[in-house]
Design a protein that fits this description.
Elements lengths: L1 H14 L5 H31 L4 H28 L24 E3 L5 E3 L2 H5 L1 H9 L3 E13 L2 E12 L5 E4 L1 H4 L6 E6 L5 E10 L4 E6 L20 E6 L7 E13 L11 E5 L11 E3 L5 E10 L2 E6 H20 L13 E6 L1 H9 L14 E7 L4 H5 L6 E5 L2 E2 L3 H7 L6 E7 L2 E7 L4
Helix pairs in contact: 1-2, 2-3
Length: 445
């Protein structure tokens, strides 16, 4: 019958491929057999109609069902043979991987030598390591040595800190308190990331803003890129680079807790500045190192810590203004030289300005610090005393709190520095183990 032949041809064409010609031929043969069967059934039906008209409708129904079953079974058999060995493409059903922000483990990309290499999450998502890699080459270690005092044939180590390169001709930015308040006999050493060490001189210093510029005899250096602290946002990821406790090239990670913490809130008099507060760990030795964003740009200069999780950095915009003034001053001095100002006298301590939060932290730790009198609301905490220094010889010890110098209250380390600019001895009132003592110190010139 023409209809059955056409139907068989349509099904055969829909399934035809170059690998399935034998299934198509089989289907066409079955369709032809089905056509012959239906034709024979029709002839049989006509013969029966001559003899009897009863049950004709039942015969037609049975024939139709038989033909349908034959065609359905044939199509099902061909479909099973076609798909039994075929593997469904993995890429069509991503399954659980569709809910992951990371790429599938089995996705490959072109690698070296034309081979395939799997995506490595540590290479794609270590954004902090990428930022640190850009900036770490410009971080330096600064150490201070007293050339007049020797310990086993070596100069006595007085202090250390961090800094970073800001020009290719050897200019380094750091904190003023890292390189100030030392005798004239000190030598400042700067060690670069490659291990080379150079002697440094102080080119410019500003104790009010706690910034200083050092110069080493080296060119061809790679300066760090200075960003803009005005665009810093609370919650932004930052990394603090430096040399805490003399451990070079250390990195700590945190976020910006506040982008404009006023100096008044911190109890710092004479400093009209908005600090960057961060929870990145900053400790002694980190001072002067860079605080960078995820682009590897410097947005601040690590300056001080209050307690664990609360540290502060000087905004880089303020440092830019300091460097501009220093450059202008250098040019002016080249034209009109002036006699250098007298250097501040030497005391021999490492100090920390006490604030209310620091006092509360010290009192909560127990031990000798818990005995601090309740009426002490400000002062300077002695963190370290250099052996053989005027402070050491006068009896000052780590843990002392200086509250007065020459009957003047001491609110910050700046008050101590100011007292060293004058002649004569310093009569200090210090708090030790809950008791007040008078200590007389004779600073060195």
């Amino acid at each position: 019958m023409p209809f059955m032949r056409r139907f068989g041809s349509v099904i055969a064409q829909s399934w035809a491929t170059k690998h399935q010609k034998h299934q198509v031929a089989s289907l066409q043969s079955l369709c032809r057999n089905a056509s012959h069967t239906v034709s024979a059934a029709k002839d049989y039906q006509k013969e029966n109609d001559r003899n009897s008209n009863h049950g004709s409708s039942y015969t037609r129904t049975a024939l139709g069902l038989g033909a349908g079953l034959i065609l359905g079974a044939t199509a099902k058999t061909l479909y099973d043979e076609r798909t039994k060995d075929k593997e469904f493409p993995k890429g069509i059903l991503p399954a659980v991987q569709a809910s992951s922000p990371l790429p599938p483990e089995d996705v490959s990309v072109p690698g070296n030598g034309g081979t395939s290499a799997f995506f490595k999450k540590r290479d794609m998502y270590n954004f902090v390591a990428d930022a640190v890699e850009k900036a770490s080459c410009g971080v330096v270690f600064i150490s201070i040595h007293d050339t007049r005092r020797h310990i086993i044939r070596q100069y006595q180590h007085l202090s250390n800190g961090s800094g970073f390169i800001v020009s290719d001709d050897g200019l380094i930015l750091t904190n003023a308190h890292v390189v100030s308040n030392f005798p004239k006999s000190v030598e400042i050493k700067v060690r670069l990331i490659d291990g080379k060490e150079y002697s440094a001189v102080i080119e410019e210093i500003d104790t009010a803003s706690d910034l200083a510029l050092l110069r080493i005899n080296c060119t061809g250096l790679t300066p760090l890129k200075l960003g803009n602290s005005s665009g810093v946002r609370p919650g932004e990821f930052v990394a603090a680079l430096g040399c805490p406790l003399s451990l070079s090239n250390s990195v700590t990670l945190g976020v910006v807790s506040s982008a404009d913490r006023g100096s008044v809130e911190l109890g710092l008099r004479g400093r009209d500045m908005q600090y960057i507060q961060t929870d990145a760990a900053i400790t002694f030795g980190n001072s002067g190192g860079p605080l960078i964003n995820l682009d590897g740009e410097v947005i601040g200069i690590n300056s001080m810590t209050v307690t664990s999780g609360i540290s502060f950095a000087i905004p880089v915009d303020h440092a830019k203004e300091f460097m501009k003034k220093a450059e202008k001053k250098r040019v002016d001095l080249a034209k009109y030289p002036k006699p250098s100002a007298s250097q501040r006298r030497y005391l021999g301590v490492t100090m920390l300005t006490l604030t209310k939060s620091i006092l509360q932290e010290l009192q909560s730790r127990g031990g000798p610090m818990s005995s601090i009198p309740s009426d002490i609301t400000q002062g300077v905490f002695i963190w370290k005393v250099v052996v053989g220094s005027p402070a050491y010889q006068s009896g000052l010890v780590p843990g002392d709190i200086i509250t007065q110098i020459n009957n003047e209250p001491v609110a910050s380390s700046r008050d101590v520095y100011r007292s060293l600019e004058h002649k004569g001895d310093l009569v200090m009132v210090v708090v030790r183990n809950g008791q007040r003592y008078k200590v007389i110190v004779s600073p060195e010139e």
